[in-house]
Amino acid sequence: MRSGSAHCHVCLSKDRIGSPLLSRPQILIAFNEISLRKFAAEVVPGGIILYGREQLPEDLNIPHAQIVCVPASEIADKIGSAKVANVVMMGALLEETECLSPATAMKVLEAKVKNQALLELDRKALDAGRVYIDHTVAVGAVTQADGFAQ
Known about the structure:
Shape: globular
Helix content: 40-55%
Number of domains: 1
Radius of gyration: 15 Å
Strand content: 5-15%
CATH topology: Pyruvate-ferredoxin Oxidoreductase, domain 3
Number of strands: 3
Number of helices: 5
Oligomer: single chain
CATH class: Alpha Beta
Order of helices and strands: EHEEHHHH
Distance between the termini: 30 Å
């Protein structure tokens, strides 16, 4: 929802998932300040918050989580479409957590997105999110023995 707060839960696990609903997520992707303020406190201690702006609001203190600011909308605009801001954020998430390989994510996009022009924008957006984490944020995930990121 643009200019408002909407949310959904996504569970990734190697084990069977009993319920897709979470009360304490390990990762929060907040595209705007409204969502950040509304859901940041729910993130588990040591969790990750990806915030879709260049910096946090000055009056906001979130000491219990690692916060990574990614100006996804601005990056998407430079790519050529504001519509791919979510894919920019997905690329940042994949690079930060290593929860899914970029090649696998791209295969899913290729299977779902039939418009070739949009698929090319998605490809650029996925790469741009990953590059932003590697070259601007310079904070990489530390992979654990189970293959998931810490």
